């Protein structure tokens, strides 16, 4: 695509917008086409229960907003207001104790106490101290040599420890292991597994390094900041436009697709070479999430006062209980007590609901394309740690795994919010084994979604890498992203 000047980006998720901003700043004429009537994909925020209650449709808490090299280069923290809570996550246990993930590793270790507190600190200290190098490594293709070796080497060794049968050896009590699996279970999969352990360690380390921020007003603020920058550099977004075939894009010089693997197969169809198509067809979807959003009449009456100020809460009990629930999901069953990730953003950001009211965001893991509605199970599990919670519910909206494709993004079809199973093999082959997996065999066509390296989460890195590959291929220098 040597003379490329007019580029289309299909999809306005964080990766599509990261690509669009990069290309517009490089001087290309960029148009983003978005199927939904709004921008943002997994970072959209909308009133889906009652007027005045703003709910994040997908991503709600954003460790990578601080740790992602793309967002650091973009200066996200200078463009939007982020609240970083003192406690990144809380994890109530069946015996009444709570694991508290402070934005301070020593304080967290002290709260765990005793030998396990020290073991937790020893596990995470070298990663927390090298968080930039580890983030750089974790957001780069796994095929490649990391720039700094010490951080990634320690991170890899610790992931190996937690991702194998050794995961039981470091701790004696329940609190620390529950906290670790609570972070690993942000990704769906069985435990212990290397990919789960790696993702969990990264999340735990960010919790104790810079913390887990929430954008004031909702995740939409991230998308809006990207769109503002895109428009400032001459680009534009058209919403309500679904691309169904690559032929519709023939008028452009290049295309960056913020679509998952099934989306690429649908759009490109027989135009893809047979070998590549076969490789894409081998790419496996992950299991799903079933989500509920609620408008609440008041704050959740958690028994532990610390949880009343903690936006992110992990429910599901001990490590053994969560591992068992995840095993059941992997076998295609709905666990009685699924792992529940709960976010109550209004405890730090009252702007998202009318005065005195609150919003709740929670999802549980379920098999791919399950039509199970998690509302009742989630309500009962919250009620165990917050008696009286049920009486506060003013309205609720369920998004079942089968609803995500229609209601949020085709990239989350079947509720697979990782756009492809998170396994070690698929973290290397994402979606194919290549140092530049964003380049498709079709001239001028790139794929940018979380189905590509470095994988899911709101970090913009897949989009940034895809745009960088396009710029490399056209000998256009990489632009600065800072305001
Ligand atoms: C319930 C849920 C909770 C999550 N929680 C978190 C969290 O707390 N923190 C976090 O970091 N991550 C979270 N994630 C993951 C995160 O949202 C995704 O990893 C991220 O959004 C992926 O970004 P993307 O740009 O690749 O795709 P998407 O965000 O899915 O964006 C793709 C966009 O492209 C559009 N599109 C696709 N195909 C077409 C087409 N053919 N024509 C036109 N438009 C098209 C879609 O409508 C969509 O807007 C969550 C996801 C879900 C579903």
Automatic annotation (TrEMBL):
Domain of life, source organism: Bacteria
Pfam families: NAD_binding_8
Residues spanning the membrane: none
InterPro entries xrefs: FAD/NAD-bd_sf
Signal peptide boundaries: none
Name the UniProt record assigns to this protein: Phytoene dehydrogenase-like protein
